[in-house]
Amino acid sequence: MIQPDSSHALTPPLWQNGWYRYARALASPNFGSRPHGAQIDLVVIHSISLPPGEFGNGNVQRLFTNELDWEAHPYFQGIRGLQVSSHFFITRTGALWQFVSCDDRAWHAGESSYRGRANCNDDSIGIELEGLEGNTFEAPQYETLGGLCATLLQAYPIAHIAGHEHIAPGRKQDPGPGFDWPLLKNPLSLPARCFPQNT
Predict the structure, then answer these.
(1) Residue 76: which domain range?
(2) How far apart are the first and last CA of the chain?
(3) Which end of the chain is more exposed for a tag (fewer CB within 10 A), N or C?
């Protein structure tokens, strides 16, 4: 007798309460509820390294979980006490971390405005790339970012993808000119209106 295929029933879902199955989860206390009726239709791409230009030391993860040792480097004194988070963080090797459920509001955008709406934290998903604004990023990062954006498009009503520099012009410059927008845009096959002009 042929037994029914139960493999699909054993496969966990890609998303569970806003957490992505293929990301390494490390919950941040820095988040809040989204406003009632908020449409999660914007992805914001950032870059970050702590200290600037140093990679792979775990300091970004410590910052997002309020565990950064402020005395460990002189640069940290300028951000001492900062409480921030992002939904996702992609390391130089392409490893994917998640700190906040996509159903919740992470603290990544700050004072911002885009597509006629202010307070982009309310209805966006933040993705941090390990890197220095203005510099280039690694091929594994683009591979992970492209895959993540593709699955976000399936799970949420994403209509726009922009950089931090586009939602907070003059205040932020990341990810900067070193970010290869066509490398992200082309595989996603989204119309040009989904991206900032001149990217």
Answers:
(1) 24-194
(2) 58
(3) N
Paired sense of beta strands 24-25 and 96-98, if any: parallel
Does residue 10 lie in a domain region?
A: no
Q: How many structural domains is the chain composed of?
A: 1
Asked, for residue 16, whether it belongs to a domain, the answer is: no
Query: In this structure, what CATH number is given to the domain that contains residue 99?
Result: 3.40.80.10
Report yes or no: 42 and 166 within 8 Å, Cβ to Cβ.
Answer: no
Closest CA to 174 of 184, 164, 188, 182: 164
Q: Is 143 annotated in the active site?
A: no
Q: Is the pLDDT of residue 86 over 60?
A: yes
- Tell me the C-alpha distance between 152 and 125, whole Å: 9
The overall pTM is greater than 0.90? yes
- Whether the bond between 12 and the residue before it is cis, its omega within 30 degrees of 0, is no
Q: Examine residue 14 and state whether it is found in any structural domain, yes or no.
A: no
Catalytic residue (choose from 54, 67, 128, 130)? 128
182 burial via Cβ count (<10 Å: 0-12, 13-18, 19+) = exposed
pLDDT in tens, 33-43: 999 999 999 99
**Domain presence at residue 9:** no
The two counts, helices (H) then strands (E), for the chain are 5, 12
